[in-house]
Write a structure and sequence with these properties.
Keywords: CBS domain, Iron, Metal-binding, Zinc. The chain is of the alpha/beta class. The protein has 8 helices and 10 strands. The strands form 4 sheets. It has a 3-stranded mixed β-sheet. Strands 4-5-6 form a 3-stranded mixed β-sheet. It has a two-stranded antiparallel sheet with strand order 7-8.
């Protein structure tokens, strides 16, 4: 009944980026400020590695100081990646294969964003709620009962938290009604 959700619909288009020569302490402070567990290491637009909180902690324990270190000294060179057109089960399998809680979303070698376990779990919850609502509506239709005001109110409230943007078609956590459309933050700014 429902098509599987694609990575493009739920991925986070914002990520922390750094270059190999960047100061490790400054990059770590940026990761903390942006509340990100990973930073993508780029050479131009090409992803060449990643730095995680675990990498920084490991370096701190073994070396004792972050002050003179660069991102290139600490980064992990392998980057798990996936196409934006892949389906979420494939992304979940890719994360499991890499023992990672995130993957980089790339198209033609260019980074588009990231996908985390949290993104997948949030979508699974949304899909189950949508399936449950469709099942309830089908049951009401077969029994001849109308929708209750409680279920109508719940359906109206649910879009304010997360859903698919009417303009760009991506999954967003903060939709708002604007000129009769539900828009994500990026599309409202345009």
């Amino acid at each position: 009944m429902n098509d599987p959700v694609s990575v493009r619909e739920v991925m986070n288009r914002e990520y922390v980026g750094a270059s190999e020569s960047d100061d490790l302490l400054e990059t770590t402070e940026l990761m903390v400020r942006e509340d990100q567990t990973t930073a993508l290491v780029l050479r131009g637009n090409d992803p060449v590695g990643v730095i995680t909180q675990a990498d920084v902690l490991g370096y701190l324990v073994s070396e004792g100081s972050l002050e003179s270190a660069t991102v290139g000294e600490v980064m992990t060179e392998s980057v798990p990646s996936i196409s934006p057109d892949a389906r979420l089960p494939e992304a979940r399998d890719q994360m499991a294969a890499w023992s990672s809680d995130w993957v980089l979303v790339t198209e033609d070698g260019d980074p588009l964003g990231t996908l985390t376990e949290h993104d997948i779990l949030s979508t699974a919850r949304l899909e189950s709620e949508t399936t449950e609502q469709v099942d309830q509506e089908a049951q009401m239709a077969t029994t001849g009962q109308g929708a209750t005001t409680d279920s109508a109110t719940a359906a109206e409230d649910s879009f304010e938290e997360q859903g698919i943007c009417s303009a760009c078609g991506t999954f967003a956590r903060n939709l708002a009604s604007f000129n009769g459309q539900l828009l994500c933050t990026d599309c409202r700014d345009v």
